[in-house]
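Q: What residues go here?
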């Protein structure tokens, strides 16, 4: 699974730019704000259908433009993501020119991302960790992608009904259909998350959804007008020496914990799919100490790797003698 070419059109800072990558390592060098992370983001988008940094999809369209396009050449497959804001905002996915649902688009390319922002896995709240689980598992399992999509839509509908039960006094019988959807799809999400977190060696703080638990919290849910159990409440705990690294770890220990998770993620994707994902390293060399830089350099040759840095001196070029070099700026 090798990304040979990436075409950016009106994407972020790029009007039109084509990047070609070799099957091994590619090192992108340039000053801050030159557009290095935009390249990494584009590859990640082709893998997941989502950005790892944008709060609003409109951000992907170059300022002053109304349409944006990404195209990735992957063997015989051409993957494309388009944004169109001319009349109403529309995002589309294509494989070899044929429109696809996101659930069918994701998984054609797989990527593991390692960036300085990954420290948020430790320091931020449960929503960040749930998004991380989704970003990994949606690339690998179609049943997870479909379950997550159905669950999210059903959850919104159920929460609206809970509000109407509280405010308008409608019958609780209308919840039955949505309860069943949440339970069926929530179990798929739970089982995939459980297996992955066991592989990582992390503690799964799960909120299991079942008919019994929904009944148990029936009154509280109506009062809150929101669903109180299910994978939307999940979390996981990252320990260091059997203590939560968020509360008891130093900044260095927190970064080391995230580093180890990413290495295990890479191993998991390779083991489950039988193919190596693209490894994306976005300006991480300045964040790692010498020992961990050495570990990364050992991993880089095992799959296609696209990495960025502001300073070539941070990278041991002797270990990357055959790396393709792209200089920006």
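A:
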């Amino acid at each position: 699974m090798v990304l040979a070419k990436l075409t950016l059109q009106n994407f972020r800072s790029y009007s039109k730019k084509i990047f070609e990558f070799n099957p091994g390592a590619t090192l992108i060098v340039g000053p801050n704000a030159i557009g290095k992370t935009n390249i990494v983001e584009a590859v990640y988008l082709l893998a997941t259908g989502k950005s790892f940094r944008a709060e609003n999809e409109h951000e992907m369209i170059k300022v002053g433009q109304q349409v944006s396009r990404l195209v990735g050449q992957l063997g015989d497959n051409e993957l494309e993501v388009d944004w169109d804001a001319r009349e109403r905002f529309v995002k589309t996915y294509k494989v070899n020119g044929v429109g696809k649902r996101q659930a069918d688009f994701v998984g054609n390319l797989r990527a593991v991302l390692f960036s300085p922002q990954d420290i948020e896995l430790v320091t931020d709240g449960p929503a960040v960790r749930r998004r991380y689980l989704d970003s990994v598992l949606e690339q690998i399992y179609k049943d997870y992608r479909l379950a997550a999509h159905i669950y999210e839509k059903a959850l919104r509908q159920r929460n609206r009904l809970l509000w109407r039960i509280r405010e308008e006094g409608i019958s609780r019988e209308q919840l039955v259909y949505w309860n069943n959807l949440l339970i069926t799809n929530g179990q798929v999400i739970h089982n995939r998350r459980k297996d992955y977190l066991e592989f990582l060696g992390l503690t799964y703080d799960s909120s299991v959804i079942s008919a019994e638990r929904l009944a148990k919290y029936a009154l509280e849910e109506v009062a809150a007008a929101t669903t109180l159990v299910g994978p939307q409440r999940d979390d996981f705990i990252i320990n260091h020496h059997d203590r939560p690294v968020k509360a008891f770890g130093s900044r260095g220990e927190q970064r080391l914990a995230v580093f180890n998770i990413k290495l295990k993620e890479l191993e998991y994707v390779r083991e489950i799919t039988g193919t190596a994902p693209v490894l994306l390293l976005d300006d991480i060399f300045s964040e790692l100490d010498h020992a961990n830089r050495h570990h990364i350099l050992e991993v880089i040759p095992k799959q296609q790797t696209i990495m960025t840095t502001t300073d070539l001196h941070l990278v041991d070029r002797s270990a990357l003698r055959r790396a393709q070099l792209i200089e920006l700026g």
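A: Context that may help when evaluating the design: The chain has a mean pLDDT of 94. The radius of gyration is 21 Å.
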